[in-house]
Inverse folding.
């Protein structure tokens, strides 16, 4: 096993004059270069770069450039097969079971969505489960890929255990995100992309760094008690959506199970507590994922009109606080995408840029310019 | 329009010596008699009685005998067509759009699940959306109907607007429940049946009657502010699962939209704020519903083994509080069902029994004995 990227990166000192705003094309070029530098074939590297760039463009910086090093490391260590191509294990006109052969998550994900869309064009629905996959970035990407074909898209993935079932002391489920995208009129769309826990572990980490308390209901400590101490929450477990039992946190626990059923249980991959620990690379992830496409024209005509009407109604509602308008799922991401366009680039935190510069040096690729 | 049932019921005074425990068969007989007394044909009345009895047997008393009067009233007033038979508007090998023709919800629901199961046997999945439906009782009923065939079942329905989108002052969505049932080994099963809001309106009503405060995060007042006053919460709106924005209540709002998309938006029925008000009978409900069946044998072999293994892992986890074991979705309902069997009957609140006695008198049917 080669020495870890983190150690190698520390040998390099980034220049002081690095800028923080970069053209999306340049970020994409850099991501592609990093992945090919560790031996990923170009088509597979491209699939990953597309998803990571989309995350940053939509304002989900935790899942973009910030995650690149994890994928680089996985491929470099051989724990993820950068060159793998998924295959269909079995299929019907409307369903498929896919083996990702330990390939990059976005390679598996795109393959599965495209297959689901193809089936939905024929029969109205395509439901595809995959095993042998890896982290696939933002769940919404795969759902949105279906809306480009005028369809509803759904995507689910299991993840490393971080969330405690209601009443339990320890984690048994991942943050298990689910996504649903649906097309509205004139390019408008609904994009729900949510983890089934209250907050991502990153939000608790941020508060811990600030040495600030976290709201009660986000996490439990090692004894299974709700905690407002961020450090205790980090060493405990996340709470499912809803939080404590009094606030129906068992519904979030049930939703986490729902995602796991569609992913690990249906695909035969790893599931629940068996999924490897977060950021560990001791064995293949063998994640389970699920991708669905539904053609609304197989149902009542006028789907897009009704979709836009409902979203419009919500957006036009009187807000409790004038400064905070009512939104539809996907609106904050649309706003951030527009911002990137207006400003002509994505603005990163300087620490991210320094880190990416160091990674470029380790891999011998051109830093972002 | 005949005088309301409530007024007619007040003319009768129930005897003092009513018992509270009744054999399930007798409850079923009474439900059937009430529905046929208002002109519902027996097959349709049977579909309703089955669902209502299942709710009481599983311990969801709000959705059983307690709701019978609503269905009786709807059929009696002619706002729901007790004799309607659903028809297929269009279909593919894996999908269907159904028109419930304003029939009883359980009639529409059973029709759609059975259709979905039939399609899933052929192609691995059946996805059926219905419009022209009415209240269908517990969502889990339809999901469980698919598990009897060894399949995963899902069910969704829109409902009258009671839940406020995150940041909004007023309600725009219903409590929009979703259900997923999945078969485990040896008759074990996973049954998630949840509204996409924090708590049902009934829970707030109970606290108001007791003149007790409600936990912050359940409801908002008329100004859109979180309230701990039950009466204010009743006249305001329910909060989506997660509660306030800080605790990711927008995820619950997104899930409520997801249910609405699968129901009213896909089926072409009423949706969101257009659904008629709760308990109003001024016009047809035209609810949208969605039913899904998935045959796990079209995916990886061994589904039931993995399902039971995951549920078993969760149930065996060390609880934070020794007196509160970790459960899997459906466990509380299984416990209540066993209790009914052991005790040889369902035990109701005396007020429910008195009320049912009065309804029997109004309709000229034999009260439960």
């Amino acid at each position: 096993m080669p020495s870890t990227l983190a150690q190698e990166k520390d040998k390099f000192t980034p220049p002081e004059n690095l800028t923080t705003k970069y053209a999306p094309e340049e970020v994409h070029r850099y991501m592609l270069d990093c992945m090919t530098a560790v031996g990923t074939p170009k088509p597979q590297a491209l699939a990953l770069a597309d998803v990571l760039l989309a995350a940053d463009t939509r304002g989900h910086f935790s899942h973009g450039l910030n995650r690149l090093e994890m994928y680089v490391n996985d491929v470099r260590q051989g724990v993820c097969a950068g060159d793998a191509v998924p295959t269909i294990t079995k299929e019907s006109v409307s369903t498929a079971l896919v083996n990702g052969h330990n390939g990059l998550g976005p390679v598996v994900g795109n393959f599965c969505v495209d297959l689901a869309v193809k089936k939905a064009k024929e029969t109205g629905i395509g439901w595809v489960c995959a095993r042998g996959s890896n982290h696939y970035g933002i769940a919404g990407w795969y759902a949105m890929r279906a809306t480009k074909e005028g369809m509803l898209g759904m995507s689910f993935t299991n993840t490393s255990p971080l969330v405690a079932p209601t009443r339990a002391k320890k984690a048994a489920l991942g943050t298990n995100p689910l996504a649903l995208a649906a097309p509205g009129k004139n390019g408008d769309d609904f994009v729900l992309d949510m983890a089934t826990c209250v907050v991502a572990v990153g939000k608790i980490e941020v508060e811990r760094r600030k040495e600030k308390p976290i709201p009660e209901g986000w996490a439990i400590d090692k004894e299974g008690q709700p905690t407002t101490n961020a450090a205790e929450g980090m060493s405990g477990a996340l709470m499912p959506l809803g939080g404590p039992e009094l606030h129906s946190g068992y519904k979030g626990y049930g939703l986490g199970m729902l995602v796991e059923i569609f992913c690990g249980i249906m695909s035969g991959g790893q599931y629940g507590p068996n999924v490897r620990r977060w950021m560990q690379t001791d064995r293949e992830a063998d994640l389970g994922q699920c991708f669905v496409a539904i053609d609304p024209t197989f149902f009542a005509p006028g789907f897009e009109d009704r979709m836009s009407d409902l979203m419009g109604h919500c957006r036009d509602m009187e807000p409790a606080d004038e400064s905070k308008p009512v939104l539809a799922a996907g609106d904050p991401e649309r706003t951030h995408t527009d911002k990137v366009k207006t400003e002509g680039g994505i603005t990163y935190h300087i620490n991210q840029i320094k880190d990416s510069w160091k990674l470029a040096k380790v891999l011998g690729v051109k830093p972002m310019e």
The radius of gyration of chain B is 21 Å. DSSP finds twelve helices and eleven strands in chain B. The mean pLDDT of chain B is 96. The CA atoms of residues 20 and 353 of chain B lie 7 Å apart.
